[in-house]
Amino acid sequence: MAPSLEAEPDSVASVLANPLAQKPQLVAPEPEHCPGPESQQAGTADSCAGCPNQAICATAPKGPDPDIPLITARLSGVKHKILILSGKGGVGKSTFTSLLAHAFATNSEQTVGVMDTDICGPSIPKMLGVEGETIHVSSAGWSPAWAMDNLAVMSIQFMLPNRDDAIIWRGPKKNGLIKQFLKDVEWGDLDFLLVDTPPGTSDEHLSVNTYLKESGIDGAVMVTTPQEVSLLDVRKEIDFCRKAGIRVLGLVENMSGFVCPKCTHESEIFKATTGGGRKLAEEMGIAFLGSVPLDPRIGMACDYGESFFDSFPDSPACRALKGVVKGLATEMGLDPAVVMPEEDDA
């Protein structure tokens, strides 16, 4: 008989309900009438009497994380929290996050924060031009790095002794740092907090959802590329959001074509063999925020830590990105003209 994930002891519902719990290391099999080593009755129920695991289960941590109210209080000044997700690596989540941050920051009346939860591959500091910054600690907490007067950034990159040091951590340590980014960082009053995530639907995603659920998450933006190999994983990410109770604000198709910087002609590089992002959005019943073409100058702007919007405001990719931002603002119930004003109105 082929193995099936349905036979796994940890159901999807139990993982989502208590995603940060570490199952106790038992010294004997669970007896027939065991209430469960992670239940509130563990180690104290009548059926636990005489069980070799009784002391282990009785002392195991139970219930919600006591730091969640502290996180909620710390983020009380943040108006909107947006997760950037995909499920697939290499589709441009971090690039899109940096572009979205710059787009929001074009309005000088708005303050934007970016939290980099890609612990093993932190690229946000490079893209926002703050790679050489360090974390300053005061009585108020950790101070984020400021890429602009109204754009704050927090990343593990600021904590590395050397920029090329690898982060070789297991899940619990990643979860602990994400908690510190939310609980200890002095974010202050923000209009938007963007959370850049790694690929997948695992530790980092569960941690962010758990820690932010009480304070409220506006939703998630899905990023994909046109080909089916990317859409496969994005479908799983959308399924994760629905099971975790995270609203999907919309889907962005990145690298939808190549724009020649000389003639601005657009060519299809990654063929949408199954209809691409627009078809997927229709199938899944979510908003399609737009398509962003490949433009070598986006990569160049990220390498130099510059704003693509400031450097190439008239490019097709910039126009497409502005359309995405306005569509996102509409989905969030905000005025697109206020979120990202046109140059004439700035």
Please give a quick description of this structure.
[4Fe-4S] cluster 2 binds at residues 260, 263. The chain has 346 residues and is an alpha/beta fold. It has helices at 12-17, 54-59, 68-74, 93-105, 124-127, 171-183, 203-213, 228-244, 276-284, 296-304, 308-311, 316-331, 336-339; strands at residues 78-85, 112-116, 136-138, 141-143, 145-148, 151-154, 190-196, 219-224, 248-259, 266-267, 288-294.
Would you mind describing this structure in some detail?
The chain has 346 residues and is an alpha/beta fold. Helices cover 34% and strands 18% of the residues. It contains 13 helices and 11 strands. It has helices spanning 12-17, 54-59, 68-74, 93-105, 124-127, 171-183, 203-213, 228-244, 276-284, 296-304, 308-311, 316-331, 336-339; strands at 78-85, 112-116, 136-138, 141-143, 145-148, 151-154, 190-196, 219-224, 248-259, 266-267, 288-294. The strands form 2 sheets. Strands 1, 2, 5, 6, 7, 8, 9, 10 and 11 form a 9-stranded mixed beta sheet that branches. A two-stranded antiparallel sheet has the order 3-4. A hairpin with a 2-residue loop joins strand 3 and strand 4. Helix 6 runs parallel beside helix 7 and helix 8 (228-244) runs parallel beside helix 9 (276-284). The protein is globular. The mean pLDDT is 88. [4Fe-4S] cluster 2 binds at residues 260, 263. InterPro entries: Mrp-like_CS, Mrp/NBP35_ATP-bd, NUBP1/Nbp35, P-loop_NTPase, YlxH/NBP35.
